# Entry
Amino acid sequence: MRALLVGVFGKDQSKEFSKGSIKELKGLVQAVGGKALGYVLQKRDQPDQRYYVGEGKAKQLKEIARGTKADTIVFDDFLTPAQIANLEKLTGVRVLDRTDLVLEIFSRRAKTKEAKLQVELARLMHELPRLHGRGKALSRLGGGLGTRGPGEQEAEIRKRLIKKRIHRIRKELEEVKKRRREQRKRRERSERGEKILRVAIVGYTNAGKSTLMNALTKKGTFTADMLFATLDTKTSARVVYPDTKLLFTDTVGFIRKLPPELIESFKATLEEVQEADIILHVVDVSDEGWLDYINTVNEILKELSAHEKPVIYALNKADRLVESEEEMKHLPHPAFVEGDAVLISAEKRWGLDELLKKIVSKGEGITREAQRA
# Structure
């Protein structure tokens, strides 16, 4: 894929925000093995109904695509079926939006049966509204980017088949949630008399969550410098003190403009966040947009009704800012965060003892508040 990236900014978001989002979109293109050739930004208060960008800009995209030999134009927002059809007809190249890329990455990275079901559900939910009035086959379903699908079918038949499949997947995922709840009850019965703290590790994708999970629990979790390196939830235990056990759960990473279909389909996994005693929010402070990323994750936590839970910020990758653990203590980043924050380097294991102490201390505070209630 040789891709030209397109973004729109206006009264709802600044040009700086759009540039940061385009930078992330470039990472999504690279994550599916594509190459981003460049980007185009347009200022518009309202998207154009036909082309999302204005007609003049759409014609310009055609010329840029021809000049750069781009075979794909990727938009940083959700496009309607009509906009995709109009743009492809005008430009003569394939047109995708951000959700298409995210779903493709998720479908490639899903390993467990549960994750595969969640991704399929999200893809189907994304496709269903796009079938209205279109006689094309499910070319954007199941075959991956750049494939053609099973051929022409009647739209209403396809819609009924998709709805049936969505219903079946939801039933299967409900069974997963039921099994999780039963496992949780069994675990709670076996843990009676022990002090247990459930800690859900959340954060922007590529913030170092899995690396931190490995460092805290000494359990192997796949890590890589890429977006959405891991999708599957993993729970590991670490006994910190004789009378306190910590259960850490690593969750899927978040991004800006996370498709609502993915939030909906991954609720079975993200239920671990809702059940946690403490949320450990991992932040890559070496990224200049780290404060924006905190806001993005907090907005998603709000959608999951988990925003009122006690939070500790693990300000990670401090080793990219200073050369020693001693110097790390002089970084000002915690002052910019509301609440408890600890500077760490999960890779070099800096600050992990302080982080564990903070978690245990926060847990003791939760226990005292529960006893007073």
Notes: Residues 110-190 form one domain. The chain has three domains: 2-103, 110-190, 193-372. The beta strands are 2-9, 35-43, 72-75, 94-97, 195-203, 234-241, 244-250, 278-284, 311-316, 340-343. Residues 135-143, 147-152, 221-231 have pLDDT under 50 and may be disordered.
